[in-house]
Design a protein that fits this description.
Shape: elongated
Radius of gyration: 17 Å
Number of strands: 5
Distance between the termini: 60 Å
Largest sheet: 5 strands, antiparallel
Helix content: 25-40%
Number of domains: 1
Length: about 140
Amino acid sequence: MSDFDALQAIIRRHAEARQADQQACETFLNALYRALRRASGPGLPLNNVSLDPVPDPAQGLRPVPVGAYHAAWFRLGLCEVLVRVRRDGGHFRGEYAGGCAFEVQDPDENALTVLARRMLRDIGRFYGGPEGGGTLN
């Protein structure tokens, strides 16, 4: 068997694990989108939030291997932020805005809301806004 054939066999053998990993990361990114929409509090949805899944710009392989980052651009009104996330065992690790990192052990609604609010505060600091000043709408 040639090296090329061996590579193709490995890729085929791990296809199911890659698909499960991709689906879990995409589900996380969608849940984070919903958390960003409700980050302003009950009954106060942020209507100017959108999600655009994209291939991870730092990834040099397709299909991406298990454990690789999956990415999406989140449009938050007048700015956009690239969020990258990967599954690490039972939890998720990620980064956003080029230097902020997060780890979510249990991606339930509360944990994602806390992450969404932290992201909004961090991004506000990048643009020079006061921490916690005013409402998010």
